[in-house]
Design goal:
heterodimer; A: alpha+beta; Uridine Diphospho-n-acetylenolpyruvylglucosamine Reductase, domain 3; Alpha-Beta Plaits; 4 domains; 5-stranded antiparallel beta sheet; B: alpha+beta; Uridine Diphospho-n-acetylenolpyruvylglucosamine Reductase, domain 2; 7-stranded antiparallel beta sheet; 15 helices
């Protein structure tokens, strides 16, 4: 540990006590972001302590990166500065829960899995079906805005996040929104926190609307040989009266990854999987009569659109698929040291020329997989074998192609996860956007001294 | 925050001349008799603009804003003026930009369920335009046949069906904006997911204090397969409010769940003839939508809860005509109250749904203590109360007591975990109540956001932020939350 680092840790100890600070290089390395290692890790136990740490960082002009269980620290551009890791996992309680009102206030550092257990006792849940579910914290899910598979049925976080409390860059404790399900009092600042990647402040508490757990679940998996028939199927379902809870379209390789995820536990590949085919997985929920209605309508639509095969899943088999789909981004991001995942936002989410992406990867002989996620974006994952300069160069070329592809579809693309070497030569956020100056105004208002996660976000924020 | 041009209500003739040059004389009003029409909105507040202009393009808006900036003149955006919080009033004079002539639906993408509209498009017109495709625009304020989508965006408007589908903010994916220096920019995207901060989420509901909205991309929803509307009649208010709490607690999710108390109901029925009972303590108007199977199960569950809570009668609308009549009664209820009292006070507080029974009892008790009739016609399903204090605004004593009673109700809403406004916005009506919810540090951050976009307070000055703000607790100003409906 160098002198500056020792200094930071020691001075932090004087602010919040030695038991909340760790300056050992070995420990700090666990909090590294793109190989940048902080000088100290602070683990506050209250929002007041968060305020103290931020005040200290502000006065010393030190850069902070808040984190939860560090499952998605790889998102964003490599940080410009990074002095203190703000480990939020010490704030991990349910502050308020009114099951009768279906509202909840929870500390940002609580794990999503723990929260799920607590709500399940009241037959309720927060519809955040996100990758890294078992490990991640509530605050991390919001700050990263990682997509939820349940978006078609329940919306995204901005639709059920009711309010937030946070310490902003001026080191003041602030709140936005409230705990009631309908509220237009004041600016909706909590919406800005969603996906802000720690650049606006340290989220200490989040208020959610909760939902009743469904009585039962079902899934239809159907396979198609052409992209056109999938698009027809998607159009018919979206025009119908059905409101599925999830809708994933998996390219052959993505389907295989989900199938193998299940196979890890059961050795054989599941019967719904057809090698080399596109798979469409539609999830639905409700009482028995509702599940029956979905099953019969969806099978009929799939047949109309020329599905080569279909399977209705329930119980254990269904749950296994549902978890596999939820965790697909995690599976692909952990598939190798150079695994690179692009997130592409276009309308429609499944464009007819989607195979152009596969062609792009094939040009550089890099294996890839494509899926239009239930969470909204189209994902394009590359799985090269090595981390060599040539591979990084190829990934860079592919990145340019992906950004062009998104622009041609009036959309946007970013690198969700990728090797640091790639992120140092390609801006993960793609070309500069027209709204960048407005984003900077927001950043300056929240964090005038630029102490929160500098350099990790869009437009150099 | 100093309000720009606060002391100069009459515009310099150079400004009027400039407006004529930009827009032509037929798009500018400046004579006092013309302006007086624009000094009101749906609230009782008043504020006369120095000029009213009717641009037809974004470029017009930008040029007017640049002219205003040169002359240090405030700008106020306005849709149809149906707002209930004074959001579209010229509190300190200035140029009012009325979007009535920017009323074109620019694009309909039925396949992706999106529409791009100008801000002056009337809410209902959009639903009407996509009806043939089985789609609709979900936010449905009572004023939906006259209010504009631009106004809905500014105030983040709600309506009965926000219970299931959320307020305006949940349905807007992109905006074109004009900033106070005249710059035109875009935020968001047609699909709704864009990189970076959720600027669309910030601008929707910012009440015209950050930018002027000149184009809006909205989501369109598919009409449900089945709709059932239930009218449940109760002999005790407690039974009705406990029914709402129980429906919520059992996690039955209606599309709308409205409560009307029996006393105000009679006034409504006299006026609308919607089929409401003439003698009851309260009714619930509950709408269930979705797949036939879902609706059938929910209707049975709702009926069961109503009966368990001693509903005298549970009636299901037989056809679309009967359903529409019930909703007509609900949506015109406030107007009907003008028949029985010279003035009223409509509050917009929100409370946790589990606390509706106790809140209604407290409102009743406050009414008795102040010797007022307080009606309740509100969005029970999402805890959005609209207590209506009936009084005679010509009687100064009554006026003062009505204000005090209202303040007490709002304080109580906040005390039990609620908020000041569920859908009407803060505007100039509730700005002085904001410190009940927000600390000095909260205001400091909101103000930095305000100043980041509107540093000179040129846009809609005197809104949202309390003018009389010192520190700590404040006493609501006399005008706060008053809405008088003259006979």
């Amino acid at each position: 540990m160098n002198a500056v680092a020792t200094n930071v840790a020691a001075r932090l100890e004087s602010v919040i006590g030695a038991s909340h600070v760790n300056g050992s290089s070995e420990f700090c390395a666990k909090f590294a972001v793109d190989d940048v290692v902080p000088s100290a890790v602070a683990r506050p136990a209250s929002s007041a302590e968060v305020g103290e740490i931020v005040r200290f960082a502000k006065s010393e002009k030190l850069a902070l990166i808040p984190s939860g269980n560090r499952t998605k620290l790889g998102m964003g551009t490599p940080p410009g500065h990074y002095d203190i890791a703000l480990d939020m996992t010490g704030l991990n309680q349910i502050a308020y829960y009114d099951p009768g009102d279906l509202t909840l206030s929870v500390d940002a550092g609580m794990s999503l899995a723990q929260l799920e257990d607590a709500l399940a006792r009241q037959q309720q849940f927060v519809p955040l079906a996100v990758p890294f579910f078992e490990e991640c914290t509530v605050g991390g899910v919001i700050a990263s805005n990682i997509g939820s598979s349940l978006r078609p049925g329940y919306g995204s976080a901005r639709d059920f996040l009711l309010g937030a409390e946070f310490v902003n860059g001026a080191a003041t404790f602030t709140k936005s929104g409230g705990r009631v399900v309908k509220n237009v009092t004041g600016y909706d600042l909590h919406k800005l926190l969603i996906g802000s990647l720690g650049t606006l402040g340290a989220i200490t508490r989040l208020n959610f609307r909760t939902f009743p757990l469904p009585e039962g679940y079902g899934h239809l998996v159907s396979t198609f040989s052409t992209v056109d028939s999938i698009m027809r199927f998607q159009a018919i379902v979206s025009k119908s009266s059905l409101t599925p809870s999830s809708f994933d379209i998996l390219g052959p390789e993505a389907a295989q990854a989900v199938a193998e995820f299940k196979a890890n536990r059961h050795s054989a590949l599941p019967p719904w999987f057809t090698h080399g085919a596109w798979h469409v997985c539609i999830g639905f929920e409700g009482a028995e009569s509702i599940l029956r209605r979905y099953s019969s309508d969806l099978v009929q639509y799939a047949q109309q659109c020329g599905a080569s095969n279909y399977h209705l899943l329930e119980k254990f088999e269904e749950k296994s698929l549902r978890v596999g789909l939820r965790e697909l981004v995690k599976l692909l991001s952990g598939s190798g040291p150079s695994a690179t995942i692009f997130r592409i936002n276009t309308l429609p989410i499944f464009p007819s020329d989607v195979s152009d992406l596969g062609t792009l990867a094939a040009r550089f002989s890099i294996p890839c997989c494509i899926f239009a996620s239930s969470s909204g974006p189209l994902y394009f994952a590359l799985q090269p074998d090595d981390l060599g300069d040539k591979t990084i160069g190829s990934l860079g070329h592919i990145a340019s192609g992906v950004f062009e592809y998104a622009a041609a579809h009036d959309g946007s693309a970013s690198i969700l996860f990728g090797p640091t070497a790639l992120k140092r030569i390609v801006n993960v956020w793609g070309p500069t956007r027209n709204d960048a100056p407005l984003m900077r105004r927001v950043k300056n208002a929240f964090d005038p001294e630029n102490i929160f996660a500098p350099g990790r976000f869009v437009a150099g924020i | 925050m100093p309000a720009k041009g606060a002391t100069r209500k009459v515009l310099h003739r150079d400004v009027i001349h400039g407006l004529h040059n930009i827009l032509g004389a037929s798009h500018v009003l400046h004579r006092p008799e013309d302006l007086s029409l624009y000094e009101y909105d749906g609230s009782v507040e008043k504020g006369r603009p120095g000029a009213v202009v009717f641009p037809t393009t974004t470029d017009d808006v930008s040029r007017v804003v640049r002219l205003a900036a040169q002359h240090d003149t405030p700008i106020i955006g306005r849709g149809a003026g149906t707002g209930l919080s004074g959001g579209a009033l010229a509190r300190t004079g200035g140029i009012m930009i009325v979007f009535a002539r920017m009323n074109r639906i620019l694009e309909l993408d039925l396949k992706n369920q999106r529409a791009v509209v100008q801000p002056g498009v009337v809410n209902y017109e959009l639903t009407h335009a996509v009806d043939h495709a089985g789609l609709y625009f979900a936010p449905d304020p009572s004023s939906w046949k006259s209010c504009t989508i631009g106004g809905n965006v500014a105030e983040n408007a709600g309506g009965p069906h926000t219970l299931a589908y959320g307020v305006t903010s949940n349905h807007v994916t992109a905006l074109e904006l004009v900033l106070p220096d005249g710059e035109i920019c875009r935020v968001g995207s047609c699909h709704g997911d864009s990189l970076g901060y959720d600027l669309t989420g910030l601008f929707v509901g910012s009440e015209g204090t950050l930018a002027l909205v000149t184009e809006i991309t909205v989501k369109l929803l598919r009409k449900p397969e089945s709709v059932k509307t239930i009218l449940a009649i109760f002999d005790r208010v407690d039974d009705a409010s406990e029914t709402v709490a129980e429906i919520t607690a059992r996690a039955i999710t209606p599309a709308a769940c409205e409560m009307l108390d029996g006393w105000t109901l009679r006034a409504v029925e006299d006026f609308i003839h919607a089929g409401f009972p003439m003698v009851s303590a309260a009714v619930l108007l509950i709408e269930l939508e979705g797949l036939g199977e879902v609706v059938a199960a929910q209707v049975a569950a709702v009926e069961e809860v109503c009966r368990e809570h001693h509903a005298r009668e549970v009636r299901i609308a037989r056809d679309e005509q009967e359903r529409e009549l019930l909703w007509k009664g609900r949506k015109n209820a406030f107007g009907a109250l003008g028949r029985i009292a010279p003035g009223n006070y409509v509050l917009d507080g929100v409370i946790p749904r589990s606390k509706i029974p106790q809140a209604l009892r407290r409102i009743q008790e406050i009414g008795e203590r102040y010797n007022f009739k307080i009606g309740n016609i509100f969005h029970a399903g999402d805890g959005n109360l609209h207590p209506i204090v009936l009084f005679d605004p010509r009687d100064a004593g009554q006026y003062q007591r009505a204000i005090e009673a209202s303040a007490e109700i709002i304080r109580y809403c906040v005390e039990i975990g609620g908020a000041l406004t569920g859908e009407h916005g803060v505007g100039m009506e509730k700005s002085e109540l904001m410190p009940l919810l927000f600390s000095d540090d909260d205001f400091a951050l909101m103000r930095r956001i305000h100043d980041a976009f509107n540093p000179q307070s040129a846009l809609n000055p005197g809104k949202i932020f309390p003018l009389n703000k010192g520190c700590g607790e404040i006493t609501p100003r006399a005008q706060a939350a008053v809405r008088a409906v003259p006979l």
